Give the backbone structure.
Amino acid sequence: MAYTFKGYLRSDGSAGTRNNIGIISSVICSSTVTNEIANRVDDAVPIIHSNGCAQLGDDFKVTKSMLSGVAENPNFHSNLLIGLGCETNQVSGLLDAIPQTKPIEGFSIQQMAGGANTVAKGVTIAAEWSEKIAQEKREELPLSKLKVGVITVDVDERTLKAAAPVVSALISVLLKEDSTVVCSLTKSLEPCGDLLAEKTENMNAREELWELSYGLNRRRWESNEAYGFSAYSEREKKIALEESNLLGSNQLQTLLDINEKPLDKGLYLLKSSGNLVETLSNFVSAGCNVALILSKEGVLATSNVIPCISLAPQNDGQTTRDYVDFYIDHQDAMTQTKVLLEKLIQVSSGELTALEEYELGEFAIPHIGTTF
Protein backbone atom coordinates (compact mmCIF):
# COMPACT_ATOMS: atom_id res chain seq x y z
CA MET A 1 0.00 0.00 0.00
CA ALA A 2 1.35 3.40 -1.03
CA TYR A 3 0.70 6.03 1.64
CA THR A 4 0.34 9.73 0.95
CA PHE A 5 0.10 13.00 2.86
CA LYS A 6 -1.01 16.51 1.90
CA GLY A 7 1.87 18.96 1.76
CA TYR A 8 3.42 21.85 -0.13
CA LEU A 9 5.67 20.84 -3.01
CA ARG A 10 8.73 23.07 -3.41
CA SER A 11 10.63 23.90 -6.57
CA ASP A 12 13.63 21.81 -5.48
CA GLY A 13 11.46 18.68 -5.14
CA SER A 14 11.20 18.78 -1.34
CA ALA A 15 7.88 19.17 0.48
CA GLY A 16 6.70 21.27 3.39
CA THR A 17 4.39 20.00 6.10
CA ARG A 18 3.92 23.64 7.08
CA ASN A 19 3.94 26.79 4.95
CA ASN A 20 5.54 29.61 6.88
CA ILE A 21 7.86 32.57 6.42
CA GLY A 22 11.22 32.51 8.17
CA ILE A 23 12.24 35.82 9.69
CA ILE A 24 15.85 34.93 10.44
CA SER A 25 18.17 36.94 12.65
CA SER A 26 21.80 36.72 11.54
CA VAL A 27 22.96 37.83 14.97
CA ILE A 28 21.68 38.18 18.55
CA CYS A 29 21.77 41.97 18.13
CA SER A 30 18.89 41.95 15.62
CA SER A 31 16.63 39.65 17.66
CA THR A 32 14.24 42.35 18.88
CA VAL A 33 13.63 43.68 15.37
CA THR A 34 13.28 40.13 14.02
CA ASN A 35 10.63 39.33 16.62
CA GLU A 36 8.79 42.58 15.92
CA ILE A 37 8.52 41.81 12.19
CA ALA A 38 7.35 38.25 12.83
CA ASN A 39 4.74 39.41 15.35
CA ARG A 40 3.17 41.72 12.76
CA VAL A 41 2.85 39.23 9.88
CA ASP A 42 0.65 36.14 9.59
CA ASP A 43 2.54 32.87 8.98
CA ALA A 44 5.87 34.42 10.04
CA VAL A 45 8.20 32.51 12.38
CA PRO A 46 11.10 34.28 14.15
CA ILE A 47 14.45 32.50 14.16
CA ILE A 48 16.46 34.14 16.92
CA HIS A 49 19.55 32.93 18.79
CA SER A 50 22.51 34.08 20.86
CA ASN A 51 25.19 33.78 18.17
CA GLY A 52 26.70 35.71 15.28
CA CYS A 53 28.44 38.65 16.99
CA ALA A 54 32.27 38.58 16.96
CA GLN A 55 32.06 34.82 16.48
CA LEU A 56 35.02 33.04 14.92
CA GLY A 57 36.32 29.58 14.11
CA ASP A 58 34.29 26.39 14.06
CA ASP A 59 31.45 27.86 16.11
CA PHE A 60 30.97 30.59 13.50
CA LYS A 61 30.89 27.92 10.79
CA VAL A 62 28.18 26.06 12.74
CA THR A 63 26.11 29.23 13.12
CA LYS A 64 26.31 30.12 9.45
CA SER A 65 25.67 26.59 8.16
CA MET A 66 22.76 26.03 10.56
CA LEU A 67 21.02 29.27 9.58
CA SER A 68 21.60 28.47 5.91
CA GLY A 69 20.11 25.01 6.43
CA VAL A 70 17.13 26.43 8.31
CA ALA A 71 16.41 28.82 5.46
CA GLU A 72 16.47 25.86 3.05
CA ASN A 73 14.00 23.85 5.13
CA PRO A 74 10.91 23.02 3.03
CA ASN A 75 8.54 24.17 5.80
CA PHE A 76 9.55 27.73 4.90
CA HIS A 77 7.87 29.23 1.84
CA SER A 78 10.24 32.22 1.93
CA ASN A 79 12.85 33.87 4.14
CA LEU A 80 13.75 37.35 5.32
CA LEU A 81 17.22 37.77 6.85
CA ILE A 82 17.74 40.55 9.39
CA GLY A 83 21.18 41.62 10.61
CA LEU A 84 22.63 44.48 12.60
CA GLY A 85 25.38 45.35 10.14
CA CYS A 86 28.66 44.97 12.02
CA GLU A 87 28.44 41.29 12.99
CA THR A 88 30.72 38.47 11.89
CA ASN A 89 27.75 36.59 10.44
CA GLN A 90 26.87 39.09 7.73
CA VAL A 91 23.53 38.91 5.91
CA SER A 92 25.39 39.20 2.59
CA GLY A 93 27.37 36.05 3.42
CA LEU A 94 24.21 34.15 4.29
CA LEU A 95 22.53 35.24 1.07
CA ASP A 96 25.50 33.88 -0.87
CA ALA A 97 25.41 30.59 1.02
CA ILE A 98 21.66 29.85 0.75
CA PRO A 99 20.48 28.27 -2.54
CA GLN A 100 18.06 30.57 -4.33
CA THR A 101 15.19 28.09 -4.60
CA LYS A 102 12.56 30.23 -2.87
CA PRO A 103 11.83 33.92 -2.26
CA ILE A 104 14.53 35.40 -0.01
CA GLU A 105 15.67 38.90 0.92
CA GLY A 106 17.89 40.36 3.59
CA PHE A 107 19.28 43.61 4.96
CA SER A 108 20.67 45.09 8.16
CA ILE A 109 19.41 47.59 10.71
CA GLN A 110 22.42 49.85 10.10
CA GLN A 111 21.81 49.67 6.36
CA MET A 112 18.22 50.81 6.93
CA ALA A 113 19.31 53.60 9.31
CA GLY A 114 17.50 52.20 12.31
CA GLY A 115 15.11 49.65 13.75
CA ALA A 116 11.87 51.42 12.83
CA ASN A 117 12.80 51.56 9.15
CA THR A 118 13.92 47.92 9.25
CA VAL A 119 10.63 46.79 10.78
CA ALA A 120 8.58 48.79 8.27
CA LYS A 121 10.42 47.36 5.26
CA GLY A 122 10.46 43.85 6.69
CA VAL A 123 6.73 43.86 7.40
CA THR A 124 5.99 45.12 3.87
CA ILE A 125 8.01 42.33 2.26
CA ALA A 126 6.80 39.54 4.53
CA ALA A 127 3.16 40.64 4.26
CA GLU A 128 3.31 40.22 0.47
CA TRP A 129 4.61 36.68 0.94
CA SER A 130 1.88 35.98 3.49
CA GLU A 131 -0.78 36.96 0.93
CA LYS A 132 0.68 34.45 -1.53
CA ILE A 133 0.74 31.75 1.15
CA ALA A 134 -2.96 32.30 1.81
CA GLN A 135 -3.68 31.33 -1.81
CA GLU A 136 -1.64 28.12 -1.82
CA LYS A 137 -3.24 24.71 -1.30
CA ARG A 138 -1.87 21.43 -0.04
CA GLU A 139 -1.55 18.63 -2.57
CA GLU A 140 -1.41 14.84 -2.31
CA LEU A 141 2.23 13.74 -2.10
CA PRO A 142 3.96 10.37 -1.59
CA LEU A 143 5.41 9.54 1.82
CA SER A 144 8.83 9.56 0.17
CA LYS A 145 8.70 13.37 0.52
CA LEU A 146 8.83 13.07 4.32
CA LYS A 147 12.07 13.48 6.24
CA VAL A 148 11.33 12.38 9.78
CA GLY A 149 13.52 13.20 12.78
CA VAL A 150 13.42 10.85 15.78
CA ILE A 151 14.82 11.77 19.20
CA THR A 152 14.67 10.34 22.70
CA VAL A 153 14.85 12.54 25.80
CA ASP A 154 14.54 11.61 29.48
CA VAL A 155 13.96 7.92 28.78
CA ASP A 156 14.35 4.81 30.93
CA GLU A 157 14.38 1.07 30.24
CA ARG A 158 10.61 0.70 30.69
CA THR A 159 9.89 3.52 28.21
CA LEU A 160 12.26 2.09 25.63
CA LYS A 161 10.99 -1.48 25.99
CA ALA A 162 7.42 -0.29 25.45
CA ALA A 163 8.28 1.96 22.53
CA ALA A 164 10.83 -0.10 20.59
CA PRO A 165 8.37 -2.50 18.86
CA VAL A 166 6.15 0.40 17.75
CA VAL A 167 8.81 2.94 16.76
CA SER A 168 11.05 0.42 14.98
CA ALA A 169 8.07 -0.88 13.01
CA LEU A 170 7.12 2.69 12.05
CA ILE A 171 10.67 3.37 10.86
CA SER A 172 10.55 0.18 8.77
CA VAL A 173 7.28 1.28 7.14
CA LEU A 174 8.69 4.73 6.38
CA LEU A 175 11.83 3.23 4.81
CA LYS A 176 9.71 0.90 2.67
CA GLU A 177 7.84 4.00 1.49
CA ASP A 178 11.21 5.54 0.51
CA SER A 179 11.05 8.19 3.24
CA THR A 180 14.15 9.51 4.98
CA VAL A 181 14.51 8.94 8.73
CA VAL A 182 17.09 10.81 10.80
CA CYS A 183 17.61 9.48 14.35
CA SER A 184 19.45 11.50 16.94
CA LEU A 185 22.70 10.02 18.23
CA THR A 186 22.05 10.97 21.84
CA LYS A 187 24.49 10.59 24.73
CA SER A 188 22.36 7.73 26.06
CA LEU A 189 22.82 5.81 22.79
CA GLU A 190 26.61 6.16 22.61
CA PRO A 191 27.46 3.04 24.71
CA CYS A 192 25.98 0.95 21.87
CA GLY A 193 28.29 2.47 19.29
CA ASP A 194 29.87 -0.91 18.50
CA LEU A 195 26.45 -2.45 17.73
CA LEU A 196 25.41 0.57 15.67
CA ALA A 197 28.65 0.30 13.70
CA GLU A 198 27.52 -3.10 12.43
CA LYS A 199 24.43 -1.51 10.89
CA THR A 200 26.32 0.58 8.33
CA GLU A 201 28.66 -0.20 5.45
CA ASN A 202 30.18 3.29 5.59
CA MET A 203 33.67 2.67 6.97
CA ASN A 204 34.18 6.17 8.39
CA ALA A 205 30.87 5.98 10.23
CA ARG A 206 31.76 2.49 11.48
CA GLU A 207 34.99 3.73 13.00
CA GLU A 208 33.37 6.72 14.68
CA LEU A 209 30.53 4.65 16.10
CA TRP A 210 32.84 1.89 17.29
CA GLU A 211 35.01 4.39 19.18
CA LEU A 212 31.95 5.78 20.96
CA SER A 213 31.43 2.47 22.75
CA TYR A 214 34.68 3.07 24.66
CA GLY A 215 33.21 6.16 26.29
CA LEU A 216 36.49 8.08 26.26
CA ASN A 217 39.28 7.87 23.73
CA ARG A 218 42.62 9.58 24.27
CA ARG A 219 45.80 9.85 22.24
CA ARG A 220 49.36 9.91 23.58
CA TRP A 221 51.16 12.96 22.25
CA GLU A 222 54.51 11.20 21.89
CA SER A 223 53.35 8.15 19.93
CA ASN A 224 49.87 9.15 18.70
CA GLU A 225 48.81 5.71 19.91
CA ALA A 226 45.11 5.45 20.61
CA TYR A 227 43.82 3.80 23.71
CA GLY A 228 40.42 3.83 25.34
CA PHE A 229 38.50 2.70 28.38
CA SER A 230 34.82 2.35 29.20
CA ALA A 231 33.25 5.22 31.12
CA TYR A 232 29.75 3.72 31.09
CA SER A 233 27.89 2.07 33.94
CA GLU A 234 25.95 -1.15 33.50
CA ARG A 235 22.70 0.83 33.71
CA GLU A 236 23.85 3.16 30.92
CA LYS A 237 24.75 0.17 28.78
CA LYS A 238 21.34 -1.43 29.33
CA ILE A 239 19.52 1.78 28.40
CA ALA A 240 21.69 2.15 25.30
CA LEU A 241 20.88 -1.41 24.23
CA GLU A 242 17.15 -0.79 24.63
CA GLU A 243 17.44 2.51 22.75
CA SER A 244 19.27 0.87 19.87
CA ASN A 245 16.24 -1.42 19.47
CA LEU A 246 14.27 1.61 18.28
CA LEU A 247 16.15 1.27 14.97
CA GLY A 248 15.10 -2.36 14.58
CA SER A 249 17.07 -4.37 12.05
CA ASN A 250 17.21 -1.50 9.56
CA GLN A 251 20.54 -0.62 7.98
CA LEU A 252 22.10 2.81 8.54
CA GLN A 253 23.31 4.87 5.61
CA THR A 254 25.87 6.80 7.64
CA LEU A 255 26.52 9.09 10.61
CA LEU A 256 25.74 12.74 9.88
CA ASP A 257 27.69 15.62 11.38
CA ILE A 258 26.04 18.75 12.79
CA ASN A 259 24.03 20.45 10.00
CA GLU A 260 24.94 17.74 7.49
CA LYS A 261 22.08 16.79 5.17
CA PRO A 262 21.22 13.26 4.03
CA LEU A 263 22.36 12.80 0.44
CA ASP A 264 19.93 9.99 -0.29
CA LYS A 265 16.91 8.17 1.09
CA GLY A 266 17.23 5.82 4.04
CA LEU A 267 18.04 5.74 7.75
CA TYR A 268 20.66 8.05 9.28
CA LEU A 269 22.13 8.89 12.67
CA LEU A 270 22.77 12.56 13.41
CA LYS A 271 25.32 13.77 15.94
CA SER A 272 23.42 15.70 18.58
CA SER A 273 23.95 17.72 21.73
CA GLY A 274 22.23 17.00 25.02
CA ASN A 275 19.87 19.93 24.46
CA LEU A 276 16.48 18.97 22.99
CA VAL A 277 15.84 22.29 21.23
CA GLU A 278 19.34 22.32 19.73
CA THR A 279 18.78 18.82 18.34
CA LEU A 280 15.36 19.72 16.91
CA SER A 281 16.95 22.80 15.30
CA ASN A 282 19.61 20.47 13.90
CA PHE A 283 16.81 18.34 12.40
CA VAL A 284 15.48 21.51 10.77
CA SER A 285 18.87 22.37 9.33
CA ALA A 286 19.26 18.81 8.02
CA GLY A 287 15.99 19.17 6.08
CA CYS A 288 13.52 17.26 8.28
CA ASN A 289 9.91 18.41 7.89
CA VAL A 290 8.42 16.55 10.89
CA ALA A 291 9.76 14.86 14.04
CA LEU A 292 8.94 12.38 16.80
CA ILE A 293 9.98 12.99 20.43
CA LEU A 294 9.98 9.95 22.71
CA SER A 295 10.12 10.54 26.48
CA LYS A 296 8.89 8.80 29.60
CA GLU A 297 6.34 11.49 30.50
CA GLY A 298 6.16 13.95 27.59
CA VAL A 299 7.99 17.24 27.15
CA LEU A 300 7.05 20.92 27.00
CA ALA A 301 9.61 21.99 24.42
CA THR A 302 9.50 21.78 20.65
CA SER A 303 10.69 23.32 17.38
CA ASN A 304 9.08 26.42 15.92
CA VAL A 305 9.76 25.21 12.35
CA ILE A 306 8.74 21.56 12.19
CA PRO A 307 5.79 19.86 13.94
CA CYS A 308 6.93 17.45 16.66
CA ILE A 309 4.76 14.52 17.74
CA SER A 310 5.21 13.74 21.43
CA LEU A 311 5.27 10.01 22.34
CA ALA A 312 5.19 8.46 25.83
CA PRO A 313 4.28 5.10 27.40
CA GLN A 314 0.90 4.82 29.11
CA ASN A 315 1.32 3.97 32.79
CA ASP A 316 -1.43 2.30 34.79
CA GLY A 317 -3.27 4.97 36.74
CA GLN A 318 -1.32 7.75 35.06
CA THR A 319 -3.12 11.02 34.47
CA THR A 320 -3.38 11.71 30.75
CA ARG A 321 -1.26 14.68 29.75
CA ASP A 322 -2.67 16.95 27.07
CA TYR A 323 0.80 17.73 25.73
CA VAL A 324 1.37 14.10 24.68
CA ASP A 325 0.09 13.25 21.18
CA PHE A 326 0.40 9.47 21.32
CA TYR A 327 0.49 7.06 24.25
CA ILE A 328 2.10 3.66 23.71
CA ASP A 329 0.22 1.05 25.73
CA HIS A 330 -0.07 -2.74 26.02
CA GLN A 331 -2.01 -3.26 22.79
CA ASP A 332 -0.64 -5.16 19.81
CA ALA A 333 2.46 -3.37 18.50
CA MET A 334 1.46 -3.51 14.82
CA THR A 335 -1.97 -2.07 15.61
CA GLN A 336 -0.32 0.81 17.46
CA THR A 337 2.15 1.31 14.60
CA LYS A 338 -0.71 1.76 12.15
CA VAL A 339 -2.36 4.32 14.43
CA LEU A 340 0.95 6.17 14.91
CA LEU A 341 1.56 6.18 11.15
CA GLU A 342 -1.89 7.68 10.62
CA LYS A 343 -1.10 10.30 13.24
CA LEU A 344 2.14 11.14 11.45
CA ILE A 345 0.29 11.49 8.15
CA GLN A 346 -2.38 13.72 9.69
CA VAL A 347 0.18 15.99 11.34
CA SER A 348 2.22 16.16 8.13
CA SER A 349 -1.02 17.12 6.36
CA GLY A 350 -1.66 20.08 8.65
CA GLU A 351 -3.14 18.78 11.90
CA LEU A 352 -1.59 20.65 14.83
CA THR A 353 0.38 18.69 17.41
CA ALA A 354 -0.33 19.16 21.11
CA LEU A 355 2.81 21.27 21.45
CA GLU A 356 1.72 23.44 18.52
CA GLU A 357 -1.67 23.89 20.18
CA TYR A 358 0.22 25.19 23.20
CA GLU A 359 1.94 27.64 20.81
CA LEU A 360 5.32 26.43 22.00
CA GLY A 361 8.32 26.51 19.74
CA GLU A 362 11.98 27.40 20.09
CA PHE A 363 15.22 27.53 18.16
CA ALA A 364 18.81 27.16 19.34
CA ILE A 365 22.25 26.71 17.80
CA PRO A 366 24.71 24.26 19.39
CA HIS A 367 28.27 25.21 20.30
CA ILE A 368 31.02 22.74 19.46
CA GLY A 369 33.99 24.42 21.16
CA THR A 370 35.73 27.72 21.67
CA THR A 371 34.95 30.54 19.27
CA PHE A 372 38.54 31.39 18.38
